[in-house]
Amino acid sequence: MSKILKEWVHKFNHPFIYYVFLCFYFCWPLLKTGNKLGIEDWDQQLFYYGAVLKSVFEFHEFPFWNPWYCGGNVLWQNPQVALLSPVYLFAVFFSLPLAMKLNIMVHYYVGLLGMHFLLTRVFKISFLPLIFFLSSLVIFGGTHALHLATGHSTFLPFFYVPFILFLFFSSLLKHRLRPCILAGVLGSLVIYNAGIHIIIMLFFSLGIFCGLSGTLQRTLHPIKTLCMFVFFTLAFSAPKLLPAQMFLSSPFMEDTRTLVEAKDVIPGFGVRVYLDPFLKYYDKPFPSTYLWREYGNFIGSFGYILIMMSLIWVFSRNHLKREDRWLGVSLSFTSLILYGVSLGDLGFLAPFSLLKWIPFFAKLRCCGRYTIFFVPFAVLTSAWVLIGIWKHLGKKAQVFDKPLQRFLSVLLILLSLELVMYNRKHFQDIFTIDLPAAAEKISSIVDYKIDATTDPYGPGSPMYKDLLQNKNILSCYEPLQLQHRFLSGKNLVFSTPENTTLSYELTPNTLMVKGNLQAGERIFFNQNNMSGWSSDGLALTRDSDSGLLYVEAEKPGEQTFRFSFFPSGLLLGLLIFLISGSGAIFFWRRDR
């Protein structure tokens, strides 16, 4: 019996298995709420995921158009909508709210695996408690829990970043192209999962790192590696990225976000951001522009001291003769720049103030979000310093006998669990809204209704519940929407001047209209619109007064018209994807 037990323990004594239990424990405050809906932005995010599910599983169409809010809006082209996510697989078996909670747990696990590979295979750390602690600083830091607690699911793709960094550094250090191609695949997955903010900050961070490392080594290899990574990321994500850009640059799009002109500054050099575990997402401990959810990133006193000392220790005499000194210095400077950006508008020449002059980065209005990338690069700096100290000690390292190793193991594990215990509390009392039992699955009701009275910012997750009932909530929580053309009091389709009774069949991307019409009679489609809409057989015209799309009957009698939507730029995006994919296969075969 003892032999069998030992074999069983040896078989399952693997850190990857421990990570499963740890992620389950960390996410248990979410999982135990089952089908309940969340607060704050969770209504909007579940609505996005639900609209994709409804299009694909109920109507068997691609998620191109969203007829269920704002009087009609884009779906595929909305950069905040995730198109490829494990949540859609889980939603086949569970309700969407529960599927989302499982999705969060899976992303935490993916993040831990990525950090494990990064620390063990790139930085050659073999001491498991240290790997666990450094990984916890990045994955179980407070910033992710705070964002997810309030429905910022667009930050979930950050958990792919450790794998991206592992592949990127592998390509950089080994002069291999295959890891860079795989990093580009994961980078495109970030974009497909609505992680636009994440990929922009990643490009920025790696741009600083590669610029510094190329200068120190006097080589263009880091810049070339970065360019290849950026190219493959953008090319593989072109079917999502190009249509999204067409939408964002469309004259029919309205950005309803309120831009805050006040300076965004974190006082006290940001120390409280990393050391205060007690503040909630809704707190405002200093005169900041945003709530604590945009700033807080508790990593504990020991973790904060370790990374700050490492940023300085890089320049110590012990590391001057290391062959990979360029790596430590580049990581340290990158971390310091990101730390400076995260402090906000300290002055005209402050890093965050200068970034506002650069396209795309100007959209990242909150300085506190850069703590998301400061911690990973600072942790990698610590890993580089610690492994250097260990090598420098050489035979002296033998003083770390078993009792001392056990003490360090227990200490690091307890420090890691401190992060888990404090930051998992942010998930408590988040999913508290009951979902009606009859609506635990996306509704199959085909009837299309208009909800012109519900407040989308009200309690009870109104947008998601309207989606379940097949309603179009006109007043919607959506910062990126089309100009309002929907006419209240009018049917989804109507005709002028005869006002003929029309029958129609609506799916997310198409509208079939039938009626006995007179020659010259106009059939209007009463939804918002943009380029991408077309009709079979007849020219589709935009009315100069109402802005609605219509077709004009050429002859009298019973007729059928079909309106359909296909995102602008998608065909070109698919072409770019296919060409870049073929190129990636070619380079993959040559890189042996």
Notable traits:
2 domains, 4-stranded antiparallel β-sheet, Immunoglobulin-like, alpha+beta, 592 residues, 49% helix
Question: What does this 3D model show about the protein?
Answer:
By secondary structure, the protein is α+β, with helices and mostly antiparallel strands. The protein has two domains: 2-427, no CATH class; 493-570, Sandwich (Immunoglobulin-like). The chain has 21 helices and 16 strands. The chain has helices at residues 2-12, 15-26, 28-31, 42-58, 86-90, 96-122, 128-139, 142-149, 161-174, 178-192, 196-217, 221-236, 238-248, 271-275, 301-313, 325-342, 351-355, 371-393, 402-423, 462-468, 570-590, and strands spanning 37-38, 65-66, 73-74, 253-255, 431-433, 449-451, 471-473, 480-482, 493-496, 503-506, 510-517, 522-525, 533-535, 541-542, 549-552, 557-565. The strands form six sheets. A four-stranded antiparallel β-sheet has the order 9-12-15-14, with no helix packed on it. It has a four-stranded antiparallel β-sheet with strand order 10-11-16-13, with no helix packed on it. A hairpin with a 3-residue loop joins strand 10 (503-506) and strand 11 (510-517). Helix 11 runs antiparallel to helix 12 (221-236). The radius of gyration is 27 Å and the shape is elongated. The relative contact order is 0.14.
Q: What's the short story on this structure?
A:
The chain is α+β, with helices and mostly antiparallel strands and 592 residues long. The chain is 49% helix and 10% strand.
